[in-house]
Amino acid sequence: MPSAYKGTPEEVLALSTFIKLTRSVNALLGQTNPMLQREFGLTESQLAVLEAVYHLGPLCQGELGQKILRSGSNVTTVVDNLERNGLVRRQRDAHDRRMQIVHLTNQGRTVIAAALPGHVGRITSLISVLSCEEQQELGRICKKLGTARAR
Predict the structure, then answer these.
(1) Is 60 helix (H, G, I), strand (E, B) or coil?
(2) What domain range includes position 118?
(3) Cα(47)–Cα(97) distance, rounded to whole angstroms?
(4) pLDDT tens series, the chain, 151 aa
C-alpha cells in the first residue's frame, strides 16, 4: 500500500522507498526469527552477539554494539540474557576494569555452531528470489544508504 503523503515528488519517492525497504526487511525477519526462537530460543540480537563473538573472538560490549548496530543499553540487556542462559560469560579487562569482555561458553559455542547453518540456509533461500547480480546491487545500495552521513 503506497503512502498517502502529499509532499514534494522527492518526499513522496523517499517515503515510498523507505516503506518498501522496511516492509521487505520485516517480511524477511518475520520468516527467520520465529524459527530461530522456536529451534534455539534465540532472538535476532542474541544470535548477532553470539555470531560476532563466534567469528571475531571475545569482544567488549562497546565493540559488540558497533558490530551489531545496537545501543549500549540494548547490548547490555542481550548479554545479560545470554549470560543468564549460560551461553556467554563476561570478564573484566585486565588493563581497563571498566570494560567487560564477552566470551562464548562451551554451551554458547555449541548453540551458535548448531543455529548458524540453518539460519544462513533460510536467508539464502529467501534471498534467492534475487539473481546474484541483484543481490550484489542491493548490497551495494544498502551499504551506501547505511554509511551515508545525515545532511
Answers:
(1) strand
(2) 9-145
(3) 26
(4) 556 788 898 999 999 999 999 999 999 999 999 999 999 999 999 999 999 999 999 999 989 998 988 888 889 999 999 999 999 999 987 887 778 899 999 999 999 999 999 999 999 999 999 999 999 999 999 989 888 875 5
Q: What is the CATH number of the domain that holds 67?
A: 1.10.10.10
- State how many domains the chain has: 1
Residue 151 domain-assigned (yes or no):
no
- Give the 3-state secondary structure of residue 36: helix
Instruction: List CB contacts of 6: < 8 A, sequence separation 6 or more.
Output: 12
- pTM given for the model: 0.84
Residue 131: what residue type? S
